[in-house]
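Hello K.,

You asked for the raw outputs rather than the summary table, so here they are, unedited. I folded two proteins back to back in the same session to keep the settings identical. This is the first:
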Amino acid sequence: SSGINAEWPLRPGGHQYLRILDSFFPGSLSAQDKTLLTKEFNVNMPLHYKEALKKNPNFGHGSIGVYEWWKGLVRQLYLSSHIDMKDYQFSLLFDDTYNQFRTTNCWDMYPETIPVLEEIQARGIDVVVTSDFDVGLVNILRQHGLFKPDDISSSLVKEVITSYEQGLAKPDLLKSVKEKWDITVHVGDSYERDVVGAEKIGVLPIFVDRGNSGICKLHPSVQTLSGILDYIK
């Protein structure tokens, strides 16, 4: 079984948060405001994301829960960009943001995803998605038609395992998955979490290096998912 990096934001996160904010307060942002806020969101979001994970690991598993985890993160994002609104406005805006990020409104597939997964399935190999994300990933994959929990035999993805559900992040998450599945290959786009993580549990890592960084020297590296078919037999 493999971890598959199959979905991606339609646009960078900053654009998505701005799109939702702009639709919630139509006409309130000038073109200059939008340009500035997009840059600020794209810079600040990763910083707040790291801090939120440090404070409440695994998206609030066993502590505040996933909804409050994201709510605190988005609040910090807006505060750091000096966006002022009433509490009830933020609550409504956040609910819309939270729900949209759990649908295909904010996520798309790489074009090669379905053909690659269909070929892997034809070879009799099961695919398990393991992700340092929350349970919203299940709905995203379902909407894309990749995961069919009610019809696992035809589902391109057999199981979706997230760090929120397990209370574990990679590489510990991979170790937990290996106890259930006979993992032979792990595919991912994070060198530290996916490549190093797979090494630690004795599984062949395949690094999806879409930016062609060349960072992965000792294991297979591909620029698209199509390249993994040469290593999955």
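The second followed immediately with the same parameters:
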Amino acid sequence: GSSKPKPAPIQEIISARPVKKSREVKVQAPNIPPPPAMPAAPAYPVAPPPPPVDYGGYDGAGSFAPPRPAIPVPRQYNARKQGNDRPKEYTMGAAGSTWKDDSLHDWPDDDHRIFVGDLGNECNDDLLAQAFSQYGSFQKAKVIRDKRTGKTKGYGFVSFTSVEDFMNAIKEMNGKYVGNRPIKLRKSTWDQRMAGSDANAKKMGWMKTTAFKSRKHVKAVDAPRHRHGR
């Protein structure tokens, strides 16, 4: 047989000329003029610094000096030091029950007392006394607090010896802010809650003559007759 001729091998030819010199591009920065100078700010008056707060500290002798209060706290009536003719305990009554109250002994004799309502938890005796210290016959201020939690119950009392200051305080201070809330004022009726008072006796007499009726009894009386076979 006849044999086919073999193809000639392919030779790869690579031809490249090396770069002898690199091309360098020089970029010149633009000539930007500087910004114009800003005008000077006008000289405004500067507020003076606040006065330093006295937080207390140690003096030269080595003892601690307490801070001075910003507003003076008025002196309040103290039954132990000044004394009074009130009994040590009062018998109070409400809702058919009676109890002994020894806190009423701490108030002056024949005082005119105001009930202060809507007090916040931040209000204390000193803050309440400062609010009413402008009246000359002011005697005492007391915020009622819970014995277990220490939080205020939302009300307190203020005492005066002059009936004029008593009336003016109710007119002028009602609705004014003491702490974070506006207060509500009215005459205190603590003497009507005594067990032997006329107002309490009328309530006790009304409770004895009026029988308690349960919801079941009221429904049975007001129900239609045919439901009960009558």
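Strands lie at 57-58, 64-65, 90-94, 97-101, 112-117, 138-145, 152-160, 177-178, 181-182, 184-187.

Happy to rerun anything if the numbers look odd on your end.

Regards,
P.
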